[in-house]
Amino acid sequence: MNKPIETITHPPFNPIHDKLYNPFELLGHFNPENPSSLPVTPDFQCFLYFHQQGGTTVKDPYAAMMEALHDTSVVREMNSFLANEMQEGRRPVAIMGGHKEPRGSDAYQKVARIAKMLSESGFIVVSGGGPGCMEATHLGALFAGRSDESLSSAINKLAKKPYDEFPKNMKDIISKDGKSINEELLTKLHGWMLPAWEIANELKNQLTPMNRSLAVPTWHYGHEPFTPFATHVAKYFLNSIREDVLVTLASCGIVFSEGRGGTIQEIFQDAAQVYYRDTDNGENKAPIASMLFLDSKFWSIPDTPDGELHMPVLDLLYQLFVVTENMKEEEFKRYIRLVDDADEVVEIIIENAPSASEVVHKLTRFGINNIDTELMALKIETLVSQRRK
Question: Mean of the pLDDT values across residues 380-387?
Fold first, then answer.
């Protein structure tokens, strides 16, 4: 049943945001016992406001200005956050994958384990911040420094039916104009969010720098709530800004888990950035950011038809990179790879990661500078060596 919603006449957000969001700020007023509490959270209010104002085609110039100011300030604060993390030796790695990946699936567990190990190895993991593989990314980071058994226990809690899979038809939770809400879908979404909210609440006062992660979601897809497992949230109104941010800041590579349209889009956005990477001294190209494809079966053409979905992207990437002489074949084999083992993914990221100065150079386009790269390099070595002890 659809219930009418009042029009939000004033922006329910601060357009000049002086810090990144944290999940409990965005989920303020969330009541675990009351699904009707969800629409009054700041996060959902922004979602409603965005759609009531026309979405990407904003009807009111004032609303357009406020949203633009907000997104600009979020970029600024994200830069500041990443600069601080990098000064401490923590370099960004992104993990992409499908939003429909069930909790507890093999892919979900692998992504969580990869994120946990990367966080323990001195990297900061970044994702789109939604359900599926994105949720698994931030869950893994949240359990960095804790036992593998504790992570498995959390996954088992999340994977209990009926909320092991993201509820269907969530795009219909509000009407296209944002003026009504589907109460049945609201109840399902609230129930799906609840176990993650409980786990995040249990750990929120026990976090260390190792547990920090960055989510980059958008209110364009506000029906997919961001994960409360992320410690820092750079949420935007415009998805176009968010997409560019995601692939650009992943200076140490991207891990692609199984996905569909959105993941494929991100693959080729990343491929374009690798292809058009800078040149050093006008001659040698800048370091290649690793593109690792988790689950070789999904990303390859099978020897015999198996009736399952496959996305064989490597052949096209080979044509793009090697046949055009954008990179040498040995570089392609080193940086553009199919990987099945979680430990191997982490070792490849560590081995292929660019130097501190190279990471800073790449991220200067975001305005991230004034970093002592020598000190950063020393801290990187300390963080990576801790894992190998």
Answer: 80
